[in-house]
Amino acid sequence: MLKLITVARQPVYKSYDSTFKVFNRTLFKKFRETPKKLANFDESEGFHHEYSIRPDTFAFKVSGANERSRSVVDIKKERNINPTDKKVHPLQKNNSKNGFNAVDFIYRNSTNYPFNERSPQEVFNEYPLTNSSKLARRLHRPKKIKMLASDFIDDSLYNPNYGYFSQEVEIFHPDQPFDYNNISDVDDFMDSWQKAYSKYDEMNPKAYQAKQKLKDIAKQNEDSKETDSKLARRAKEIYKKETGLVQTGQFSKTKRSLQLWHTPTELFQPYYGEALARYLLVNYKLNGYYPYNDLIIYEMGGGNGTLMCNILNYIKENQPDVYARTQYKIIEILSQLAEKQYSNALKSKLILQGLDSLKLEIINKSIFNWDRIVEDPCFFIALEVFDNFAHDLIRYDNVTGEPYEGHVLIDEHGDFYEFFTPELSYYSNAFLQLRENGQYPVLKHSDTVLGKIETAKSMVPFVTNKDKIHPLYHSSQKLKTMNYLLPFKDNLTPGEFIPTKLLHFFQILKHKFPQHSLICSDFHFLPNSINGYYNAPVVQTVIQDKMVDVTTYMCYQGYFDIMFPTDFGVAGDLYKQVTGKVPRVELHHDFLEHWADTDITSTKKGENPMLDFYTNVSFMVS
């Protein structure tokens, strides 16, 4: 895989005929000495990855035709009529068809074009197309394959064998609810929160095992005689190295590096869950379901069952007649976590809290594989799940405005590249059509005063955040100039991530849960998103208890969390068009101020952490 940290350009490349070639840089003399250092490169040590380009350095525009999906006769006919697969990229080393171009000549001799003498179309046609459903059956990360950007993201997060959420996780859960009325202010609350971490600050088992191993080795060394054996000397070297790692603290001392999740449900329990219980009870009766229908609650991604217990406890204590006919169903897409939920939440939490375990049903299935229709009226809870819904990637032709859909190609060495085709997938095309016919069209506003202002802002350097401006509002002339001077993007606009998985989810609600009422919340803004894209995700991981953000979504699958913000204006409009139901969007503060017991979560100075925290979160209910 391509490294995530940009390092100095290395003026070398590895050809596909297994011969390691070094070519001279005629434009950059300071690089001339670098090939000498690599002259003794040993191919037995492995393939030399090209570190001078990133996975998103290039955006290759190709046709959507896949030669492996057509007959030989069809391929020959298409080659004779329109041989697009032979179209030469400006930076190809053998490019001589378009005459002399000074800019192309400079980049051709100073940039490591990754495919040598092959065109992007030839490379794209070489690999078969797959999707995340097929990849879920694989035990190892794929190579020599291509997929939609959404399938790459989905596979990186949810693959059951190597995906991010298949790893061991820990959800922050305080042993006791915070006593807000006896807490001075927000600073005092933060101190109490930090103290609640103490149970997660246990010694990492790996560090403990390493120290035990070092003690054993030290004891053996005391008992053994000096020797000149090569193996003995090597063992001592390893011993010294591991001793240094432990002594310098390079072994993680806490278990938080594994994955420690924070949710408002856990942080403000039980009061956060009680707020949702009040909303459920009021709307259960206002909608006319009581006393004719049971109170059926579906929760998507139930965590460790805290929200379930808080809701059921509140209903039992305040309206036992409704509790008697309440059903709670958790849809959990993470098999490892679902098993943990079943044993811990069902047996411990429900039984120990005096709740009826028969009311709970855990459905270990992805909502996107739902295969039955729920005819009964129900409430569907989805808290903080939209941020991990895969998005598709769209770039637009800078001249015509035609959308091109992004694919991630993984070559035989595991390196990632972006390719864009004019053939749109079903949900990408549906999203673009629905958005243009809804309350937030892009094309219709491009010629308005506001659209012109956005275009003008895109031309001002160093002042405005260009990633906040929709790609179709960017100045076409400016992009044309930039793409001429930096010919890496095939005259395509910056990318836009579109919420196709969210649209798919809304369609499932419409067809499989026709009488549902939705309660969802998620982040409407996320800091530190990757640059160069509109509606871009935050991509991050934890290293030695520190959160590290990276600058591309094309990372080694399973090691990074990929989180998207939700534009609730667009999401609400999509939901209305798809389901026919009218949603209401509220800020986290406003929703809880209306439904929560704010007195019990207020500090001595009148501050309210439950209302004041998570300012970048919104609720949407129907």
Task: Give a verbal description of the structure.
The protein is α/β, with parallel strands linked by helices and 622 residues long. It contains 21 helices and 21 strands. The strands form 5 sheets. Strands 3, 4, 11, 12, 13, 14 and 16 form a 7-stranded mixed sheet that branches. Strands 9-8-7-10-15-21-20 form a 7-stranded mixed sheet, with helices on both faces. The protein has a 3-stranded antiparallel sheet with strand order 18-17-19.
Main beta sheet strand tally, sense and closure: 7 strands, mixed
Uncertain residue ranges: 1-45, 66-85, 223-227, 251-257
Shape assignment:
globular
Task: Supply the helix-strand structural class.
Answer: alpha/beta
Number of strands: 21
Mean pLDDT equals 77
Helix content: 25-40%
From the N-terminal CA to the C-terminal CA, the straight-line distance is 44 Å
Query: How much beta, percentage-wise?
Result: 15-25%
Helix run count: 21
Chain oligomer state: single chain
Radius of gyration from the CA trace? 28 Å
In terms of topology, how is this protein built?
Blueprint: E1 12-14, E2 20-22, H1 34-37, E3 59-61, H2 72-81, H3 102-108, H4 120-126, H5 132-135, E4 145-148, H6 149-158, E5 170-171, H7 186-195, H8 205-223, H9 230-247, E6 260-261, H10 264-267, H11 271-286, E7 295-300, H12 306-318, H13 320-323, E8 326-331, H14 335-352, E9 360-363, E10 378-383, E11 392-396, E12 403-410, E13 416-421, H15 426-436, H16 449-458, H17 476-485, E14 495-498, H18 500-512, E15 516-523, E16 533-534, E17 538-543, E18 546-550, E19 561-563, H19 568-579, E20 584-587, H20 588-595, H21 609-612, E21 617-621
Parallel strand pairs: 3-13, 5-6, 7-8, 7-10, 8-9, 10-15, 14-16
Antiparallel strand pairs: 1-2, 4-12, 11-12, 11-14, 12-13, 15-21, 17-18, 17-19, 20-21
